[in-house]
Amino acid sequence: MLSKRVEPTGDPGGTVQQGDAHQGDAPQGDLVRPFSPARGRPVNGATTRPASEWEQRYRRTVITGDTLATAFVVAAIGGFFGVRDAADWHEKWTILAFGTELLVLGALMSSRAWTPVVLGQGAEEFRRLGRALFMAAVVLSLGGIAVSSRNIKLWIFVAIPAIALVTVTVRYLLRRWLHRRRTEGHCLRPVLAAGSPDTVRDLIARSRKFPHLGWRVDAVCTADGRGIDGDEVDGVPVVGQLTDVAKHVHGDGYRVVAVTPDPYWSPDRLQRLAWNLEGSDAEMVVAPVLMEVAGPRLHVDAVLGIPLLRVTMPAFTGGRRVVKEIVDRLGAAALVLLFAPLMVLVGLLVLLDSPGGVVYRQRRVGKEGREFTIFKFRTMVHGAHGARAELAERDEGAGLLFKMRRDPRVTRVGAVLRRYSIDELPQLFNVLTGSMSLVGPRPPLPEESAEYGPDIRRRLLVKPGLTGLWQISGRSDLPWDEAVRLDLRYVEDWSLALDAVILWKTLRAVLQGQGAY
């Protein structure tokens, strides 16, 4: 989605009548008596304000956490190294420590790392945090060169990385708390959805499926003021027509106006709506609906005075891909060393549990359609592939995938290995040899990829991954079209930051064992 923050400039626009739903020149929104999102009638006879106190409290908590984390690291490093170099303690440590603290906090502020809209969701929060700390390290190094300080290396190569580790940990813990509160129905931003009933229904379904994102659709406006179920859309009341959007925002204090596709929305009407939302605290969010592209590929540019949504090409080559290759090989090598004792133990358990080999080899399709042999710990009885035809009628898989929740071919040890994805550890050797990546689309079978249409074949433009968006979003429980959509989204919107988020979330998905069978 493309988000546009509407800053207050004071002119809310004129009054709109209910019957002007399709009058393109009709202005939208005047300050009127507020309407209840639940009942569509006036409340208390006075304008209500948005319930955003929790956002300000959360922002203050994040700022306090960053400040205390930085101060803790600076004090700990100064205390440890200062004792060893007592001569410099009183002269230089206080200046360097205080300067580092101010420099880090100033970099966080200039990078807008405390902007409420990025706190608590997405990779952008951590991207801005990383950019701020990198900026602080650069300025600190330049300052050290300017004053010829011998101690500056300590603060660049020890203090800044330590601050990064502690602040990221604190932010992650705060985010986990916020997501838990949102799952319980708290700390949600009230949303007014404006568009066609079908597209609004999709938005409502997504907001309910992912409550941690913090959206709660409280009211709907449609072109004719009617919904799918009478005056409701999936239980959310329709409070007016599309010409009434600004009026309800000013009256009821919604925090987000989500504009979904509808023939009514022309460029002039969208611009007029943005004008009429001025003076409110609402964020206007417009779904471009041209394609499902997000993240670093989307840019808004003004060309010849026209705002254009610029979509850059997907990055299949270049410096970032080289970095990804290096991270893949080094990461896989480190994980092989880390999990070597576990893999030896699992191999012995597989041998003792049932006759057959330890490692199961299977042909899969990789980048650009090239086949390779994938390695997994054997989780089924010997000859399981030949028995698949007999179980075809009991297939519970999505689309082209064959899956069964209680597959009789799975061994006792195999069921445990599958639940926690331990059977996939040998694929680290596929990553080492370059046929797979740590993060990427799911590696398909040859017969599966043979059925791909042109759209789905875009999954093969990059290396398949040991984990991916499908792994952290439900795995085998995902419908086929949703699994394909997630894979294509990764191919289109790949970034190093997205890889880092997926790897982090994979740990939680594996420990929970959801969707694995």
TrEMBL record:
Cellular compartments annotated: Membrane
MF terms in GO: transferase activity
Record's bilayer topology term: Multi-pass membrane protein
Domain of life of the source: Bacteria
Transmembrane segments: 62-81, 93-111, 132-148, 154-174, 330-352
UniProt entry tagged with the keyword Transmembrane: yes
Location of region: Disordered: 1-51
Keywords, in A-Z order: Membrane, Transferase, Transmembrane, Transmembrane helix
Domain Bacterial sugar transferase residues, every copy: 324-512
Keyword check for Glycoprotein: no
Family the UniProt entry places it in: Belongs to the bacterial sugar transferase family.
Protein name: Sugar transferase
